Amino acid sequence: MPSPFPGMDPYLEGHLWPDVHQTVAGEISRRLSRALRPKYVTRLAVAAVEDDSSTPEIDSQDRIVTIEIFDLEHNQLVTSIEILSPVNKRSPGLEKFVAKRERLRNAGVNLLTIDLIRRGQRALPSTPSTESRRLAQADYLVTLLRGMDYRMQAWPIRLQEPLPVVAVPLRPPDADVPLDLNGILAAIYDEAGYDLTIDYSTPPPAPSLDEESAMWLEQQLSAIRAQ
């Protein structure tokens, strides 16, 4: 059964998120691996991050999975794809993520950041104040920093919208590779059987939706709840 939502399913942001995070990372790696041969390879890097915030998750240690793309000729990291978790969006994990972002940028590594959780704080690179507010208020957000280029490309996403096809940069002059985030989410939702686990008769995980989004959500779920 497909998700009742056109893009991100807010019910995946709660207790299912650790599984969603790792499953999405694996699917991204598989799809890119096929597209990047024979010049590049993808690898999954797993880091255990201690969550010593004042409101810790059930498990105080989060496993963060990053997709890394390596240039085979030079065996160098070219692009890092970060899927944010709640621990990346509050102290002290937020500051650690910002520091990592700066290290990658200074090393000339491309950074694609995928934020599919509404809760927490977004630490955006320097942007005009109006643009920063718009991106901070988006339900979901994908950003791209290309190596030493301090300009940021962004895909702000509303709950009501499909996830975008985003660009995965490589080493020049190689062209960007398209990454269909909506197709990836749809595939893992079906394969993992999340519809068998989610109780759509209850409200979605925090934070609360605004009035417009809450009404839209009720319309999306009306058919399921009537069964």
Which descriptors would you attach to this protein?
227 residues; single chain; alpha+beta; two-stranded antiparallel ribbon; globular; six-stranded mixed sheet; 5 helices
Polypeptide structure, described:
This protein has 5 helices and 8 strands, in the order αβββαβαββββαα. The protein has one domain (10-198). A hairpin with a 4-residue loop joins strand 2 and strand 3. The strands form 2 sheets. It has a 6-stranded mixed β-sheet with strand order 1-2-3-4-5-6, sandwiched between helices. A two-stranded antiparallel ribbon has the order 7-8. With 227 residues, it is an alpha+beta fold. Helix 1 (17-36) crosses helix 4. The protein starts with 16 loop residues before the first helix and ends with a helix.
Strands, helices and their partners?
Elements: H1 17-36, E1 40-50, E2 61-71, E3 76-83, H2 93-106, E4 110-115, H3 129-137, E5 140-145, E6 152-157, E7 165-168, E8 177-180, H4 181-192, H5 211-226
Parallel strand pairs: 3-4
Antiparallel strand pairs: 1-2, 2-3, 4-5, 5-6, 7-8
Quaternary assembly = single chain
Order of helices and strands: HEEEHEHEEEEHH
Helical residue percent?
25-40%
Largest sheet: 6 strands, mixed
Low-confidence stretches: none
Count of separate structural domains? 1
Strand elements, count: 8
Distance between the termini: 14 Å
Sequence of strands across the biggest β-sheet: 1-2-3-4-5-6
Look at the helices and sheets and give the structural class: alpha+beta
Mean of pLDDT: 92
Instruction: Round the Cα radius of gyration to an integer and report it.
Output: 18 Å
Q: Report the sheet-strand fraction.
A: 15-25%
Give the number of helices: 5
What is the general shape?
Answer: globular
